[in-house]
Design brief:
Elements: E1 12-19, H1 23-34, E2 39-42, H2 110-123, E3 134-140, E4 143-148, E5 151-160, E6 166-167, E7 179-180, E8 194-198, H3 202-211, E9 217-222, H4 228-232, H5 236-240, H6 242-248, E10 254-266, E11 271-277, E12 283-288, E13 290-293, E14 297-298, H7 304-307, E15 311-312, E16 317-318, E17 332-334, H8 357-374, E18 383-384, H9 389-399, H10 401-405, E19 410-416, E20 420-427, H11 428-433, E21 439-446, E22 452-460, E23 463-468, H12 480-490
Parallel strand pairs: 1-2, 1-5, 5-17, 7-13, 8-9, 8-13, 9-10
Antiparallel strand pairs: 3-4, 4-5, 6-14, 10-11, 11-12, 15-16, 18-20, 19-20, 19-21, 21-22, 22-23
The structure holds flavin-adenine dinucleotide.
Residues 19-25, 42-45, 50-52, 55-56, 61-63, 133-134, 161-165, 203, 297, 300, 336-337, 355-357 line the site of flavin-adenine dinucleotide.
């Protein structure tokens, strides 16, 4: 029999089936295993790491890892300084990306990231059935049935950690003839060429930055203006903003335009692109050698929309509950980059980071606890003594990486029900909609001006009150004045 199937997870019935072996799938499997949840992991890849086997195309991430930091690498607090490693309870499984870095940069290269993920999969003994493609889906009463290249898998909950890297081309006449970002291979091929890039978000600026030393002329265009205030808070600014800098200074040969693309026409020697200004009057026509569509990506949802899975963003991303379950089809969950389909409160400035490893690694841990409870596995909810409450809250607000990275999205939640019980980390929106009559959620938020401050949400007899605390220039909240303020609020 072993010769018949040497791979783990033969087709059959499991409580949970996870699809994907990128960082989202690996983190989810690790957390489910810690909680003793029976699950299978399937992936059409041959090795762990998902998208990082191919992207970012120009080889360096936009998310930081600081190999040396004020916190020790083996601590939970260090996660705030390392936005790329997967997270674990065991010190020996923590911070596996920094040892792979050669320190040329505080942003790991794609290869370094991939090695860090592979080390995590190996040391945490995450089993994956590789080379197994999920092909179709159906529901049979309470079960989700996944049809795969290796046979049928039945489960009570399916977690799709399938990423958002399938090319999506905006519906512009003729743009389907352009090269999509994912197919841009060799920057040298653009030497002395005029290149029109459709899209002014991460992938558009990434390509433009890489082509600066090669192309003769680069035009980036999309209808919405570059949001300089948002960019100032985005990881993009670290890596890819030279094209914008050149344009903002009036530098020749690089243009960053606010324009709707009317059409792309193929000519004898290249392309003609006709655009209409959105923040300026008029039309322009560009004769260029190449057009690159950097208009984004979509999740490879296959037949899930036919099953009733609702989507947002032009069908590219699933619409999700606070616990990352399809809003419309119970039992279908998402992990990894696709967790951005649960937007959270989104009420203030810079928010959650669910589309990057630093954010979705925590979403995966919260999802695993949620699934464990749904499947009847008890999750520990330790009791706190009254005297521990305020120091614990101030410590979490100052150091918890979940709160610092998933700002205004994840919170430390405590319930008051015949004692003080630590409910763990939970989505803020779930807390606000929740039913526990007396409880508290502590998180970090950012206002429109970029000021970071701690905040407590207190639910008393079902009614929620919001208590923002003053900001601190060093974000240090473990001191007497915060202690007094929190005590006053709790009193
Ligand atoms: C160009 C680009 C650059 C990025 N840069 C960064 C960055 O610097 N830092 C950062 O944190 N994030 C970055 N991201 C976001 C990035 O997508 C995520 O961080 C991460 O790779 C997503 O992990 P994931 O597990 O959700 O999906 P992926 O890594 O995409 O993995 C998806 C997995 O699902 C599997 N799969 C898909 N469909 C099937 C199927 N039908 N059957 C079986 N298996 C299937 C795939 O084989 C793969 O194993 C970037 C994204 C893009 C597009």
């Amino acid at each position: 029999m072993a010769a018949v199937d040497e791979q783990p997870f033969s087709p059959g019935t499991y409580d949970v089936v996870v699809v994907g072996s990128g960082p989202g799938g690996l983190q989810t499997s690790y957390c489910l295993a810690r909680l003793g949840v029976d699950h299978a992991v399937l992936s059409r890849d041959d090795v762990p790491g998902g998208m990082f086997q191919r992207f970012p195309l120009f080889q360096r991430l936009i998310t930081w890892t600081k190999p040396d930091a004020p916190a020790d690498r083996k601590t939970r607090e260090y996660e705030w300084y390392d936005h790329n490693s997967l997270v674990a309870d065991e010190p020996e499984l923590r911070a596996l990306v920094p040892p792979e870095m050669n320190r040329e940069y505080d942003l790991p290269s794609r290869e370094e990231m991939l090695r860090g993920l592979a080390a995590f999969a190996k040391r945490a003994r995450i089993n994956v059935r590789y080379g197994c493609t999920w092909e179709a889906t159906r529901r049979e009463r309470e079960e989700i049935v996944l049809q795969t290249s290796d046979g049928e898998y039945r489960c009570r909950a399916a977690v799709f950690a399938i990423g958002i890297t399938e090319p999506w081309i905006a519906p512009v006449p003729g743009l389907d003839r352009a090269t999509h970002y994912v197919d841009v291979k060799d920057v040298g091929a653009y030497e002395n060429r005029r290149v029109f890039i459709v899209g002014k978000r991460n992938s558009g600026f990434e390509v433009a930055q890489a082509l600066l030393p090669w192309a003769r002329q680069i035009i980036l265009a999309s209808p919405s203006p570059v949001q300089t205030k948002t960019l100032a808070l985005s990881p993009l600014r670290v890596r890819y903003l030279h094209p914008y800098d050149e344009y903002a200074r009036g530098g020749p040969g690089t243009y960053v335009l606010d324009a709707a693309i009317d059409r792309v026409e193929r000519g004898a020697d290249g392309y003609r692109v006709v655009v209409a200004g959105t923040t300026w009057e008029g039309e322009l026509t560009f004769e260029v050698d190449d057009v690159i569509a950097a208009t984004g990506f979509q999740a490879p949802l296959q037949d899930l929309p036919d099953l009733g899975v609702a989507t947002v963003s032009d069908g590219r991303v699933p619409a999700l509950t606070p616990f990352w379950e399809s809003l419309t089809v119970p039992g279908i969950f998402f992990a990894g980059n696709a967790t951005q389909g649960a937007r959270g409160l989104g009420k203030r400035g810079l928010g959650a980071s669910s589309s990057a490893v630093n954010g979705f690694r925590y979403n995966a841990c919260v999802l695993a606890s949620h699934l464990a409870e749904r499947l009847g596995k008890p999750v520990s909810r330790p009791r706190l003594a009254g005297s521990e409450l305020v120091p614990y809250l101030l410590h979490e607000l100052s150091h918890a990486p979940e709160l610092w990275i998933q700002k205004g999205y994840l919170a430390r939640v405590l319930a008051f029900a015949g004692g003080i019980y630590d409910q763990g980390i939970a989505p803020v929106t779930h807390f606000l909609d929740g039913t526990v009559p007396d409880a508290l959620a502590a998180t970090i938020e950012v206002d429109e001006g970029g000021t970071i401050f701690p905040i407590l949400y207190l639910r008393r007899s079902g009614e929620v009150h919001e208590h923002p605390l003053p900001p601190h220039p060093l974000h240090v909240y473990e001191n007497e004045s915060y202690r007094q303020e929190v005590e006053a609020i709790l009193r």
